[in-house]
Amino acid sequence: MVSKKHWAPTANVEVGEVRQSETGAWVVSGRLAPNGTCPECGTPSRQRHGWRCRRIEDFPAQGQAVWIELRVCRWRCLNSDCRRRTFSDREAAVATPYARRTSRQAQLLGHVAHAAGGTPAERLLRRLGIRVSDDTILRQLLRAAQVVPPRARIIGIDDWSWRKSQNYGTIIIDLERRAVIDVLEDRDVVTCTDWLRRHPEVEVISRDRCGLYAQAARKGAPQAEQVADRFHIVQNLRMAIEEQMNLHGRATGRALLSDADNISTASNLLKSRLAHRKSREEIYETIRALRQQGLTCSEIGRRTGFPRRSVAKWLQFETPPDRKRAVLKRSSAWYFEEYLKQRWENGIRSGNALLPLIQERGYEVSVRPDRPAAW
Ligand SMILES: [Zn+2]
Questions:
Q1: What is the DSSP letter of 209?
Q2: Ligand 1: distance of its center to the CA of 181 in Å?
Q3: Is the separation of the CB atoms in 97 and 48 below 8 Å?
Q4: Residue 54's CB: how many other CB atoms inside 10 A?
């Protein structure tokens, strides 16, 4: 037979009555110790100031929910020197303040939620006789996770202004949990060193390039590895890029070139084409000369490095062959070169303005509409 004491959620609860409600749930009436002890001065008291009933859910029994109706008393402190006049029963072992379920049931919810997740845990617990929503289960899981005392392995340390430009403190952050661990009142080597000595679990310290924190880390946490924080690495990179851009002032692309530069680019292109043509003339003359010596195409090819078929083809020409440009189509902006040149000289130099003009003249945008590339 189950005795009354088996219904008690903890050993310090004395069970008075167990009854079944109309809904089938079990209701257990219980109370705590018949006297209290002042948490301030430790004086025991039997003088009751008042009481209240706290209703909390416990483990289910026989497929039904179990509710504990706990009588929580408030006692008078009998010590006249004590600053506390009254105090309440300590029911922390049964349930945390304001909780609607006993600590042991909350712990069970946490375990099931951890194994099954929110909604599956809700379904499973309902079959076990605990009606609880998945939101509550997840809240309980979160609460249990927060109770774990954080032992920061990887920390970030930086200065932090109590008042900008006037006084600065030091902020220490747990980088794994992204949470502030501590705020020191100043940015002094001694203060930081002391803090680090009190936290030997620190393995990595992310810091700025200021020598202060480097010194504190060397003294207070010699076991820890020091790394530069991301902000300062990116800042360094940005400064290096800016420096390079300033050194090469015109490395900003063709769009910003002046007219004089554009003309110089065009003349360079012309020079290169002329040089190319000249070299073709030289090749042509060489091949012709070798042929006049009575050499075969294969022999000329071996001496000049050109394929035999190319040599034979070149020997058919009266003059050096000019480079042939592919037949232009309306899908190429080069098809409208002359027209675009005129517009450019008239001052229309924006791709967005030129595009509709050539579209009117039949420019076929193929797959992706874009500005005429060369313009
Ligand atoms: Zn007291």
A1: S
A2: 34
A3: no
A4: 19
Ion ligand 1: protein residues whose beta carbon lies under 5 Å: 38, 40-41, 77, 79, 82, 84
Taking only the tens place, the pLDDT of each residue in 323-354 is 555 567 777 777 788 888 888 888 888 888 88
Residue partners of 365: CB distance under 8 A and separation at least 6: 331, 359
CA distance 224 to 196: 10
**pTM for the full model?**
0.41
CB atoms near residue 290 (< 10 Å):
19
- Give the span between the Cα atoms of 38 and 10, in whole angstroms: 21
Rounded distance from Cα 15 to ligand 1 centre (Å): 28
Tell me: the pLDDT tens digits for 212-245?
Answer: 899 999 999 999 999 988 888 888 888 888 777 7
Long-range contacts of 159-163 (CB under 8 A, 24+ apart): 159/187, 159/208, 159/210
Question: How many angstroms separate the alpha carbon of residue 147 from the centre of ligand 1?
Answer: 30
- Beta-carbon contacts of residue 208 (< 8 Å; ≥ 6 apart): 158, 159, 228, 229, 231, 232
